[in-house]
């Protein structure tokens, strides 16, 4: 399981970050067509991560990048040369005299306030990021071309800054993500989305639709915002996260004493994490409600809390009837609720047991944060709108790529009609799909 929220920021930014009102863009990407769509692969279980294929360099080469809305910096495992890299699906990225210097504003934005050292202007820009799962990446910032096919049919290859990571530490060597790096989609300056938006190429909006059956899609830009049906919650702007403020938990349609949970959305986390107190209370609610209808499966080490039925569960569908839906109801916001069906907080393991996919964040050092991870973001369209400082969601069929032909001009509705097999056939380097218009 992975938890790619940035620990560094968790510990330091909360105290020091001041409110920065959203800046007016120099140029603003206008109108229809300034979006990019990427098919997504991966799943919550057994893989534990979702990823996209992104082409980088000249000539462009494909890389698998873990989708992470919990951090800003995109980085690739890098032959600089590599001191410590994990097995990756593609050969390591090779920098080619394209280092960013420490004078670059992007370099300063990566380091905490007062923590930016730039003794000589020609010096390289080092970075280190530490994730909440105790993984880390150390490297230097480089700049290279990212050919992107926009929804208007044009391919543009902007030069974007990202990390060339030559020293990756991982805690759990048994469950390494088989990726080439991380796609950081936070709202910080160093995020490639922010870079694209300050170049006027796309709006600072990112959305994902992660399918419970695996796969899905990711998009940059605001062409895929439906006109209605989305529940929006303002982002708390003083934090460096997609942090949505406190919510109360309902269990099976009833209020509980689990209240005021500060919520953060993080696609880089496989599972959902509650604070220790909320976690303990939830486990006892679920256990009380199960009332021994399922037996504890302590022998299943897949996750901390598992149960078994009279015979092994084949899929999540067999198990959900034993469990009640949860609702996170945001306080100080009218009718802003995030629904968690049992499918959004349970997995069925290879041993045929059902396990709780909400974990104790206190045990991994998340402190007072409640992190909503992939398991609970599945089968929803989730939109992080940094233009209007809000996050929105709606139930969706994520098995189909959005089809632009459907309702051009009147906003998009999900699910989109498109060929079922399309998602797997299309590779991002060649969106034959879009040119059919
Ligand atoms: C398509 O969108 C991109 C990104 O905003 C832009 O750079 C390009 O000029 C647009 N192409 C056309 C033909 O409008």
Automatic annotation (TrEMBL):
InterPro entries registered for this protein in UniProt: Aspartic_peptidase_A1, Aspartic_peptidase_AS, PEPTIDASE_A1, Peptidase_aspartic_dom_sf, TAXi_C, TAXi_N
Signal peptide residue numbers: 1-17
Domain annotation Peptidase A1: ranges: 50-394
The yes or no answer to whether the keyword Hydrolase is present is yes
Keywords noted in UniProt: Aspartyl protease, Hydrolase, Protease, Repeat, Signal
Name the Gene Ontology biological process terms.
proteolysis
Q: From the UniProt record, which GO molecular function terms apply?
A: aspartic-type endopeptidase activity
Q: Does the keyword Cytoplasm apply?
A: no
Q: Which residues form the active site?
A: 68, 266
Would you identify the family this protein belongs to, as annotated? Belongs to the peptidase A1 family.
Instruction: Kindly provide the name given to this protein in its UniProt entry.
Output: Aspartic proteinase Asp1
